[in-house]
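#help-structures

NK: newbie question. if I give both the sequence and a SMILES, will the prediction place the ligand too? trying with calcium ion
OV: yes, paste both and it writes out the complex. here, I ran yours:
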Amino acid sequence: MGNLCCKKKKKPVGKSDQSIHSKDNLMDEGNSALKLNEGHVTMINNYLNNNIETKIINNSSSEIPKKQTNIINVDYKTFIKGKKYSDLLNDYILLEHLGAGAFGLVQKVRHKASKQIRAMKIIKKDSQYSEKSLKEIDNLMQLNHPNILKLYEYYLDNKNVYIITEYCEGGELFDKIKERDGNFNEKDAAKIMKSILLAVTYCHSQGVVHRDLKPENILLEGNDFEHLKLIDFGTSVIMNTKGEKFKERLGTAYYIAPEVLKKNYDEKCDCWSIGVIMYILLTGEPPFNGRNDEEILKNVKSMNINFHSYLLSDVSFDAKDLLKKLLQRDVKLRISAANALEHPWIKNQAPNAKMNKNAALRVFNNLKNFSADEKLQEAAVAFIVNQLTSKEEIEELRKIFIDLDKNNDGVLSREEIQNGLIKYYGSEQAIEETNKIFDKVDADGNGTISYDEFIRASIDKQKLISEEKLKAAYRLFDKNGDGNIEAKEIKEVLGGVGVKDEEVWNDIIKEVDENGDGVISYEEFKKMMYQLCNK
Ligand SMILES: Nc1ncnc2c1ncn2[C@@H]1O[C@H](COP(=O)(O)OP(=O)(O)O)[C@@H](O)[C@H]1O
Ligand SMILES: [Ca+2]
Ligand SMILES: [Ca+2]
Ligand SMILES: [Ca+2]
Ligand SMILES: [Ca+2]
Ligand SMILES: [Mg+2]
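OV: that's the protein plus ligand as structure tokens.
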């Protein structure tokens, strides 16, 4: 394997100060710099949460829910809210700096309530990038996948936007490869490629195009190459349903696709960048090089790669075949991320991990028994799972999710659940159980089970009810800290944009209020949570 001699950091074209065609940049279009103040915090929250409103409207038009409280939709997004800077200092301890990209600083922080180490990206509000930072939050919020950086929450003040995400201890992918010092083979490269392709297949199936795929934007959770995270969605964009092409010229010279330079491209530009990353993984050299951006870009536009070069002489036939398909200049002929996952090189060099049968059986048992009896219980579970649960606690579930997701689109279909049931329980039970499981677990009713929905329903409930987690969840709802949860506090937390009937909030209280005093005490809350484990 090559030794990655090209590891020179390149600023993305669209982000750089000396970008090639600065007047064509996306950045220049957003010159109505957003002014963030406290009033804007609410506005931005509403903007970022507006999909909740649509869902509620959809629900009520299709069928009248049995319980009034069902019209409140709870998921991981419920807890991703913009808070004030003063809250940041209450919630987090600031630690050392991790790095600086083109946009801003990244700093390590410790979340006091969960004791987790997280990362904080600080983006200056007075720069031209403020609108982009909101876009980054919005994009990350739509994405929930094991190979995509997880967003926890964000803060705003007059100067900056502070984005809190999970922390990737392993650092940048290429730094880890260099540490291995030659101890890196095609199997490792295939594992890395598979994780990247899984993340990108999911993005594309969700309509998101990353547009700045490069090694600096691929981080490792720990030491192994499977636990890889795609980061930096500041330049990504949502595909238009009419299939309109993108016209902004942005990306980073080495990795940019030729059609992006011609300003007429679609999601396949990501597949080209993946091809460049793969070439570098296998040879240690970028396929298109040069002394400066201009030279590199000239080569990107027109240079043909020599697949007989000595650089590729030790590379397997299958690997070269996939490379050619990714670095195909004709966009129509270029392989998609989903199809690349089916390529023999990935299939043979990076096979799926073997499942632990007992763990899988436990997961299916949890899925079968999953139901939230009360809205407050459902919300508390969602909060604890999404905000307070460690990576180690869900590692087994992550593997099972990936195993069940046969078409690699990052969500589970009815058929995929059924096949899992058949595999672990035999066929008769499976067909009958599938529908029962599916409708309960698909909390937002969109017809597929997302990673977030899966984890919430399949986690061992014992993991949720430590005294610490229960206290933190209670504190979330007991906003004023007086030891009682009131209807208006629930309203504040669950948002409920578009909920017209204020009685809903009282109904949520009534479901749990044993002594009938109109508020939820910690004891009542705890009892409700302990009942989860008695099912
Ligand atoms: N969650 C994280 N954990 C560890 N390091 C990170 C994390 N996020 C960013 N970094 C480091 O900071 C750099 C810049 O972050 P990035 O989000 O890519 O910002 P930019 O948009 O400025 O490129 C990354 O290349 C990486 O080295
Ligand atoms: Ca799937
Ligand atoms: Ca769903
Ligand atoms: Ca209170
Ligand atoms: Ca009470
Ligand atoms: Mg970056």
